[in-house]
Design a protein that fits this description.
The protein has 7 helices and 5 strands; from the N terminus they run ααβαβααβαββα. By secondary structure, it is of the alpha/beta class.
């Protein structure tokens, strides 16, 4: 069993090493600047995803409205994760529209959408990005390397190396989320 654990840790390290390139660091900084500028302009951040990616979306919003490492004022951020809303729209319209309808109702020009999809092919996340673009929101995509439907809709694409299973991609995503929040706090003078 210990061999399995060591193998898993080594695999995670390999994926992180592959991800950690100067261009990736620049893109994370660019995304943090985009989000910081939106917050400084009084805009809000909306995040979405499915399954584990929805948990990451909620974690991102929670860290922005709560706190990361130090006490500071809350930033306006929310994840589209209300079960009553999701089941209402999923039932009355379609599961593909659960995020886009929310964006159409609550999003405004200048807001930022953090769209999370390990594959980049989640139809409801793609539709959310399309809706965001239509109303003048900026889109940051958190996905994996490779051709997908989400990346062309994003202003900034933060792509994990593609792996056989999504858990390694999700591990990179949570690392990126923490780096974004830390960078946003520094850019907004809370460090």
């Amino acid at each position: 069993m210990k061999e399995v654990i060591y193998a898993g840790l080594n695999e995670a390290r390999t994926v992180l090493d592959e991800f950690m390139r100067p261009e990736t660091v620049s893109l994370i900084n660019e995304a943090a600047t985009l989000i910081s500028d939106a917050l400084q302009s009084g805009r809000k951040i909306i995040s979405c995803g499915n399954g584990g990616s929805l948990c990451d979306a909620a974690h991102f919003a929670e860290e922005l409205t709560g706190r990361f490492r130090k006490n500071r004022k809350p930033y306006p951020a929310l994840a589209i994760n209300d079960p009553a809303y999701i089941t209402c729209v999923g039932n009355d319209y379609s599961f593909e529209e659960i995020f886009s309808r929310y964006i159409e109702g609550a999003g405004e020009a200048g807001d930022v959408l953090l769209a999370i999809s390990t594959s980049g092919h989640s139809k409801n996340v793609v539709k959310a990005a399309q809706a965001a673009r239509t109303i003048g929101m900026k889109v940051v995509a958190l996905t994996s390397v490779g051709s997908n439907q989400l990346s062309p809709l994003a202003d900034i694409v933060l792509a994990s190396p593609k792996t056989e299973f999504s858990d390694r991609v999700q591990e990179i995503h949570i690392k990126v989320i923490h780096l974004l929040i830390q960078s946003i706090e520094i850019k907004l003078g809370h460090h």
